Structures are given as C-alpha cells and as structure tokens.
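protien #1 (seq + structre)
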Amino acid sequence: MMNYYHNKPDVRERVLKHGLQYPSDEELVMLILGNGAKGVPIRRLSRKVVETLYESNSGDIVKNLSSIKGMGTGKTLAIAAALELGRRKNAHIHHVIKQPRDVVPFIKQYSVMPKEHFLSITLDGRHAIIQIHVVTIGTINKVLVHPREIFSDALSENAAAVIVCHNHPSGTCEPSENDILTTQTLIDAAHILGITLLDHIILDRDTYFSFLEHELLFTLDD
C-alpha cells in the first residue's frame, strides 16, 4: 500500500520532545492533516496549503483551500477550524483593559465550566493583556490557590499588574467568605512583589462580580 495515508512519525516525535514551537508551518499543517491524498504526498500537500494560506485573505481561506488537489471538505475545514481556534485563543493579547467588563469577553467561556477554574491575567504597564493563565482547577464549588501560583507567571512575564478570576459553577457570582480572604491575601502578596492586583472577577453563566466595582479591594489592616 502506498504511504500517502501516513504522517511523518519523526515530526510527531520531535514535537512531543521539543514542543509545538519547534516545527515549521509546513510541519504544523502535516500534523493537522494527518495524511496526504492519492497521488499527493503529505509534505507536498502541506507545502501547498501553507502557500495558499499566505496568499489568501481571511474570507477566502475555505474557498482557496478547497481548490487544492487532495484537499477535500474534511481537510479544508480542519485547517480553517485550527486557524479560527488560534484566533479566538489569542484574541485577548495586547487588548487594553480600562474597566472590569473589558476583560469579561475573554474569560466568559470559563463561566460554563462544571468545575471552578482560577485564572491569572497578566498585564503590562498600559494594562494591555500579556496572557491569560489557568492557575488551578478545583471541584464544583471550591478551588485552592496560593500567591506563588498566581504571581509566578506575572514575574516571569515582567507584568506590571494582574487581574484574577474564577467561575462559580453553583450559579451565583456573589463572593464567598473564602473568596474575600483569598483576595486579601493576594493583595498583600502583590504589594510585596510590586505588582498591582487590579481586580478579582467572579463569573457565573449570566453575569460577573467585580471586587473593584464593589469596593472590596482591601486588606484586613485597611
């Protein structure tokens, strides 16, 4: 049997060893497609896909990919879906946060998670988002966090400020006593590290609660 149905195993092995930053664009496409087509080896097909992507406007990608020999509907949509997922995943980068509700669209997907997810959103001196990190995942109604987990990413990214966030799967975004105590601890740690804790946002399916908007960004000594 011809080998056009098989991906190059060395690409997979190198990615597993070195990470997704290692492969070329062509090799990333090879990983997405998984196999070539009859008469079109995987590497040649991937090279043509990359060329087409760089020559296409966003609205023409599906049409242009579909015109490539060996690219059926499944392969075309797999590439288009990967591009869209990447766009959504990175839409937050460099977005300036001026008020609490500005950050909500970038974290709203966590509001429907069945377990609590605690997030750390790092920002630069302009309060533009550097990155959104999932710090820890808890149970349906509880998640434990430690300041070192929250601020390790902020320190490594030279962040000037941080917004923390978590979801309440139970259905109400009102802060618990533990949420308030955790926030107070994080404020103290942020002060020591020279990083500003801008807000703590709690999400449920319908709305959000901002510690900043409710004037709850204080410590026990205030």
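ok now protien #2
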Amino acid sequence: MKAKSKTYVTSANTMFAALSILQKNGGTMPIRILMQEVEKAVNLTAWDKEILENTGNIRWQSIMHFASVDYARAGFLIKKKGSWSITPEGEDALNLGVEKLRDEAWKRYKVWYRNKGESDVKPTVQHEEDNDLSKETVIELETLEERAVNGIREYLKNKNPYEFQDLVASLLKAMGYYIQSVAPRGKDGGIDIVAYTDPLGAKTPRIKVQVKHKPDTATGAADVRALLGILKAGDIALFVTSGTYSTDAKHAASSGDKFIRLIDGDEFIEMWQEYYDKMSDEDKNMLPLKRISFLGSNE
C-alpha cells in the first residue's frame, strides 16, 4: 500500500481534531480559538509548522483550511463568518476514524463538485491538492470574513463595559424593541437593560437583559442561574456577553423552566451586521461598519 503524503496526514489529523474539539465544546467555536486547540491536540511536525513563502501562512493551517472545504461540502461542518460548527452528521462521522473520515469527506466533495455541473475533479494522492479553483475562492472569501470579524472583535475588546451595554441596547432598538431603561454606571443590580415589544410596555413579554463585557472569558452556569432567579411572571431573559459561554452555562439555559436566550460575542457581531442598516447614524457610529460586495453565486 502506498504511503500517505504529508499533506494528507496533516489534513486528516487536523480536521479530525477540529471536529472532535467542536463536539466536546458545544458544537460551535470561533476559528481562531479552534485553531489554538487543534495546535495543542495534534502532534505537528517541523514541516507542518513551516511558514509558506508564497503566502506567509503556516503550512498546517493552510492545509486545514483547504481540507475544510471538503468537510463542509460533505455536510460534516458549517463555516460561517469566522466560526465553525459540527453538524449531527459530522458527529456521527467521527466514528469512522481519522483516515476514513478524510476519505469520506473527499468522496462526498467529488460528488458535490460533479453535481454542480463542473468538469470532473482530477484527484491526486494528496486529495486536497486538486485543480478545483473554487476551493481557493472559498478560502479567500472565508479569510476576508475572518479578518473582518477579528477586526470587529478587537474594536469591541477596547470598549468599556458601559459602552458595550449601550451597543446591546442599540442592537435591540434596531431589532424593533423599545428600550425602557438602561442601567446607569455604578453597582451592578443584575439587570442592565429592560425592553418591551410595544411603545407603552403594556404587552408581555418584558425582556430583561444582562450584559457581560468579558471578551476573553467564558461565562459560567452560576451567572446564568442568577439571571433566571430574578425573572418574574411575563419576563424572558436575554444574556449577552462579548466572550463565550461554558458548556455548563448553555445547559443551565436550556434545562430550566424559564426562557433565557444566550448571545455570545460572535453572534452579537453577526446580529450587529444584520441589523446595521436599520440603525440611526448615531448608533452606527458606536461600531461603524463598511460594506464591500463580492460577486456571488446562485447555489
């Protein structure tokens, strides 16, 4: 049997590690954090860690990004604006093992490629080094999106907690909610924003919002339970953090008898982008965006 190429081994190992890490951490992670975890989990060689002269990127990261297109087209992975999510099918596919999972992803990618009406894929021994230019386009766009989101993250990181609280209130206004109150600076009373679905606040539910500006921290279950504990009849809770949530926090939110919606930093950015055009100029200036359009496709 012919030995597997270095590229094949690296792509198989890093992608298997990535999907396994996603499965163990709630299913979704920012790619920057996922890359850090993959680097810890995989025994990378000196060749893997070399800097590529043509791009300046680290070889194993480029290989992993390129291979990820196969896994996404295979239905094992969803990539969206700087974050990766494992699908239920991807979780099941982990049972195949490292190499069989890599081969299955490549096989499904070839089927997808043929079905979209392109000429046949010309596979090589290394799988991911084929002649499909669409992969390069996908990766370039994903890289641009990732850089854009990272820039927004850094901008948010430099905001103080009260500025982030104001950003959350502005987002809710753009979504059509009416802001009844925003907590003043001072001692944290647990509820930072109260919003209504109508101008008078006569209709339920009342939305009670807690905001945590901890971009480098995972909010735990204790904070989630504390918010649930102060809800009254007719209330729903919204917990917004500029960071992430622990697995226990997500479980606490989903297992109680009261409704609480968790929004992490990446989802906040995504929602800000989605509702940006509906904001006032004053609110836009709190976190200004510049839109750039690329030619898309109809698939």
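Confidence is low (pLDDT under 50) at residues 120-131.
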